Amino acid sequence: MSLDGGYNGSFQQAIANLHIGRDQGLQEGRRQGHEEGRMQGYDQGRRKGRSEGRSEGYSEGWQEGAARANEKLQPLRDMVRQYFGEAVQLRAQVQHQQELIELMHAQLSRLAQAGGAGRDVQHAELTATIATLQNANQLKDATIEAMEKQFQSTSAQSSLNTRQYHCALVFMRAAQGVLEEFVDEDTPEAEFIREQFGARYQQQVAQSLSDGDIDVAPELDEAFQRLLPGTQQFILDMLQSAARR
Fold it and tell me: Which parts of the sequence are annotated with region: Disordered (predicted)?
């Protein structure tokens, strides 16, 4: 009886331990699965949010940058329109004076065929007037030609400046995107990149200030903040992160 009772007791204890172990394993599995799922979901959400944020920021920055570039180029375009308007007016004046010259030539022909007193005086006066008008027309023609060349040069420079700005913006966005990927994690490599960026950036700022290319560092420039707020914030984050280390 004692052996049988002892056996039954051990068997029941084993069953109880099995249930306890199963419950503990189930709870631990759920906890671990929940934690892993939460971390994975967090990581995926963070990456998706960063990607969507970068895409949205790129689009907004591009549009605002283009608007700002157009604003900067507006005086140049106004000058082009002014050149064009003045050239049109000069052409009209030249055409009018050319018509006067032709009328005076016709009058000279009639004087040459007619006789009478005072013919030579009138002929001389008309000839002098024609010469004056012709000289004025030649001067205006030269002015128009110079204005047209200036118009073409200014228009080409405006278009070139816009294209160069867009090219620089494309490169900057690509480089910024790559840097953001590298420094996203807190790793020794990311720390090294932040430090290198901070050092190189400060060198470039100092050189540009010395050369007169900029008046203030981009991270402190209010106009740059309005133009490319995402890029300015990225610069600030990189500098602050490097300074904390």
Answer: 26-66
